[in-house]
Specification:
212 residues, mainly alpha, 9 helices
């Protein structure tokens, strides 16, 4: 009898402990991707508050004097700026879907490098080739992450079929749109972003970049 009472008491204590063990907490699971997202939202709010001033000064790239330090800030900062909420949500949604998985696989430092390298290469290309147009938005980063994700199953001596399909569908569409469709979308930015993602994905899967 005493043993039964003691067993019931222990089971009750374990039952009282279960809610504590099952408590859920929010984790900052992808520091680079989440920080990038927060910065994009902050840039959007600043642009609204300043009525376009911050986008013009910090978050878009266009032909300006190379003697100005702001020119070099804009080479990187243009990926944070967006023309409106729909523009922002369209880019950030894809980044939040693909980015955390890539950051877990390749490491935060490599993901930061991918974003910075994509920002600089697309910003510099736009600066050189399109002097009368401004460029802003994270679409180049989106395309870099999409192409990078297609390398996640890469094995030695093999080219993933998923990479070929993604390259044909995404980059082929951008080439077509650049030739035949006249709109405000920077197709060159998308293509360069995809090329950067593919190149860095190849390098990282060859273990030529440390993953940490």
């Amino acid at each position: 009898m005493r043993d039964n009472l003691e067993r019931k008491r222990q089971e009750k204590e374990r039952g009282n402990d279960m809610p504590e063990n099952r408590k859920l907490k929010i984790s900052f699971n992808s520091p680079v991707i989440l920080s990038f997202t927060i910065l994009c939202f902050a840039a959007m709010v600043l642009n609204i508050v300043t009525r376009g001033f911050t986008n013009q000064v910090f978050f878009s790239v266009y032909r300006s004097s190379l003697l100005s330090p702001l020119t070099y800030i804009r080479f990187f900062g243009h990926v944070l700026g967006h023309a409106g909420w729909s523009h922002l949500f369209g880019n950030i949604t894809l980044i939040l879907v693909v980015g955390p998985l890539l950051e877990e696989k390749y490491g935060s430092a490599n993901m930061l490098f991918v974003i910075l390298a994509t920002a600089f290469s697309t910003g510099l290309a736009h600066y050189a080739l399109f002097p009368r147009m401004g460029l802003l938005g994270a679409s180049g980063v989106v395309f870099a992450l999409i192409l990078l994700s297609s390398f996640t199953s890469m094995k030695e001596g093999e080219i993933p079929l998923t990479f070929i399909l993604v390259a044909v569908i995404y980059l082929g569409q951008q080439v077509y749109d650049g030739i035949f469709v006249k709109d405000n979308v920077s197709n060159l930015t998308h293509i360069l972003g995809g090329v950067m993602g593919a190149a860095l994905g190849y390098v990282m899967n060859k273990n030529k970049m440390n993953r940490y």
